[in-house]
Amino acid sequence: MTEPRIATCQFEPELGNIDANLDHIERLAASVCDNTALAVFPELCVTGYDVDLVQSTQIAVPGPITDRLRTIVRETGVDLVVGLPEIDGDTIYNSLVYLSADGVEGVYRKQRLWGAEADSFSAAAEPTVVETPVGRAGFLLCYDLNFPELALEYSNADCDILIVSAAWRESFERDWRVLCRARALDQTCFVVGSNHCGSQRGRRHAGSSLIASPQGEIVAQTTTGIATASTAVTPETLSVARERNPVRQSRRKNMD
């Protein structure tokens, strides 16, 4: 039996051009390796990362945009995680939306806002856990990655995968790679990091989307000209890592 794969995808969104960005998401989802069950895309990739656009590009979930994304899932056979500015009543969140062929399966709202994001978004205060074809997954957005206590909530919820979507700047690329690997190692889970590439309103993004194994090793990564990378998620990989580094078990013993 072939194990399902998870993919990380990156691209340079067109600011405010939702149709073009959805087309790009569709092309990348269609291009991932066979047996890919889930593809992860960057923070605010549906609209592009620009806090000045939030009021004019806010998106209802569910709604017409998620309906289009659901169609992409059905046509490609690949579940999607995408970033967008979510409107809920009068409140706007920097959100990740997980979609299967059945529609919206989960929404994560960013808990730690970076800089001017706080002028446009409200912060959330809860983790989000979703059962996916590749295992139980938790979600973080960009700056959230700096806070190990947020990742720990997902370890305590027995997550096998930590999905991190970002608009991480080129000047902090080293931090991005170190933190993705650290969260994989200290929570003994796969970390799937999807980041913007290119430039938007003077922000140069690092790209360097990657997947880290539960032993903290980078097992797949994008490169110049290659916008997707994937790996198989196997129970054996998780069990070997957790036997070698039994931090989950030790934490629970200390909590008893």
UniProtKB/TrEMBL annotation:
Keywords: Hydrolase. Residues 4-240 form the CN hydrolase domain. InterPro entries: C-N_Hydrolase, C-N_Hydrolase_sf. Coiled coil: none annotated. The keyword Protein biosynthesis does not apply. One of its GO terms (molecular function) is hydrolase activity. It comes from the Archaea. The keyword Hydrolase applies. SUPFAM superfamilies: Carbon-nitrogen hydrolase. PANTHER family: DEAMINATED GLUTATHIONE AMIDASE, NITRILASE-RELATED. This is Carbon-nitrogen hydrolase family protein. It comes from Haloarchaeobius amylolyticus. The lineage of its organism: Archaea, Methanobacteriati, Methanobacteriota, Stenosarchaea group, Halobacteria.
